[in-house]
Write a structure and sequence with these properties.
heterodimer; A: 5-stranded mixed beta sheet; 16% strand; elongated
Chain lengths: 318, 142
């Protein structure tokens, strides 16, 4: 659905619902890089509306990754609704639609979308069916998120404490080579959503497997595209969806190592929050020599609370 | 951008059952609407300060209303006390790391802006960053 079509739909739905509801097209949520297309809240009811994008039509796993992040970030009682695009292609309908829809709380077909959505938004009888399960999973995930946020902060502190002369951007290939050396092997595509170009030089994101841990190297740019892709891929790699509830796999935290410092990027803090939500750690940027010691720090943090000596060692490590 | 963030926060608050319909909820939403209404106020430093003050009042009152839902009543209510209480609430995915993160992002900056003469937001990006942090904090406890 084109942006103009969605905005028209939003205007029509807004006219239909009571003025005690607020409708936001393309909401700006601090934990979501890929939010639902519409967020509608009022009278204690919150509805997130997803309209599959072109790439999600081709690969429904991408829609799942968006849903996973939204279930983790939005309030538990949020109703996630899938709106069938008007120009849906037959192969999406036949092969993927059923599987993609079972994790949503409602589906709106193509006829009378405005009226049906308007009614649904105000209908308190439509509820997410497994709030207790979701609450439990969110609590379990909170520990992983906290660890990811802490480690990302430590990675940033380490690079911030280094002399500026040692912060020159490294070649993207050199970063990928360093991560690949530590991992020992390359990973072509673990989830179907990860880029399938293995270790090809110049690609945005390269992924490797080190035992049960996923490591990535990212080529930085001012829009943060590679890191956004890493967040999206990690949501799929780290979670399974069952009846709309994301279940975290108990693997070590995935990590991404950018080739260049991107903390000046305008939405960097949002990127860090979104990454932590799916347990992704952003390692020290542009410092291939620090990868191994950072992995050691992560292994320690997974086993026990970090001590002052661990932090001093990490932050003072030459 | 500040307006879009405020709108998102309004949708979250209006759609939350943890903040029941009440005159107080209406006032929270009104404070956030002010952020959008001030979009063309000049000069810019005044606009940024007013936008942040309205957003902060909404934020403080939202925390208080969510605390009531969880039967939390700190002896001396303050933003820091609420954050600590949310950390101790076992049903919320709000960890000590979250508390430290939001304490650092919001509490100190808020105190400077509200209490220090001559202190203004550093610009539009500062307003965006702080409203984003308020929205992030609230969405962890809603």
């Amino acid at each position: 659905m084109r942006s103009s079509e969605l905005l028209t739909l939003a205007r029509e739905v807004r006219r239909q619902v009571s003025n005690r509801f607020t409708l936001v097209a393309y909401p700006d949520h601090p934990y979501l890089l890929e939010p639902p297309e519409l967020l509608i809240g009022g009278e204690g009811l919150l509805t997130a509306v997803f309209v599959p994008k072109a790439d999600e039509m081709r690969r429904p796993a991408l829609l799942q990754s968006r849903l996973i992040a939204s279930r983790l970030a939005l309030p538990i009682e949020t109703r996630c609704v899938l709106l069938r695009p008007l120009s849906v292609k037959p192969q999406f309908e036949v092969a993927n639609f059923a599987e993609a829809t079972q994790n949503f709380d409602a589906l709106i077909q193509s006829d009378n979308q405005t009226r049906r959505l308007g009614d649904m938004v105000q209908d308190g009888s439509i509820r997410f069916r497994y709030p207790e399960n979701l609450e439990r999973q969110r609590l379990l995930n909170a520990t992983r998120s906290a660890l990811a946020l802490t480690l990302t902060g430590l990675g940033r502190r380490r690079t911030a404490s280094m002399p500026s002369t040692s912060l020159a951007a490294v070649d993207a290939g050199a970063m990928a080579d360093a991560v690949g050396r530590v991992a020992g092997q390359s990973l072509a595509s673990a989830t179907g959503a990860l880029p399938a170009d293995g270790r090809r030089r110049g690609s945005l994101l390269q992924t490797f497997r080190r035992g049960s841990q996923t490591l990535m190297s990212a080529r930085s740019d001012r829009r943060g595209r590679a890191l956004s892709l890493a967040v999206r891929a990690s949501a799929l790699d780290q979670f399974g969806l069952d009846n709309g509830v994301p279940y975290s796999r108990s693997a070590p935290l995935p990590m991404v190592f950018p080739d260049e410092d991107v903390t000046e990027f305008v939405s960097y803090e949002k990127l860090v929050r979104a990454a932590s939500l799916v347990g992704l750690v952003i390692g020290p940027a542009g410092q291939p020599q620090l990868i191994e010691s950072f992995l050691e720090l992560e292994a320690i943090a997974r086993q026990r609370r970090l001590r002052r000596t661990d932090l001093e060692f990490w932050l003072g490590h030459a | 951008m500040p307006a879009k963030k405020a709108q998102t926060l309004i949708a979250l608050i209006r759609g939350s059952s943890k903040i029941p319909s009440s005159p107080e909820k209406t006032m929270i939403v009104e404070e956030l609407f002010e952020v959008s209404r001030l979009a063309s106020l000049t000069p810019l430093p005044r606009r940024c300060l007013f936008q942040l003050i309205h957003a902060m009042r909404a934020f403080d009152s939202s925390l208080a209303a969510i605390a009531v839902h969880h039967h939390i009543s700190p002896a001396h209510p303050s933003m820091g006390k609420y954050l600590s209480a949310f950390r101790d609430e076992t049903k919320l995915p709000f960890t000590e790391t979250d508390r430290l993160y939001y304490q650092k992002l919001l509490v100190n900056r808020r105190n400077d802006l509200v209490h220090k003469a001559g202190c203004y937001p550093a610009g539009r990006h500062d307003v965006i960053r702080l409203i984003d942090a308020m929205c992030g904090c609230i969405s962890r406890v809603l």
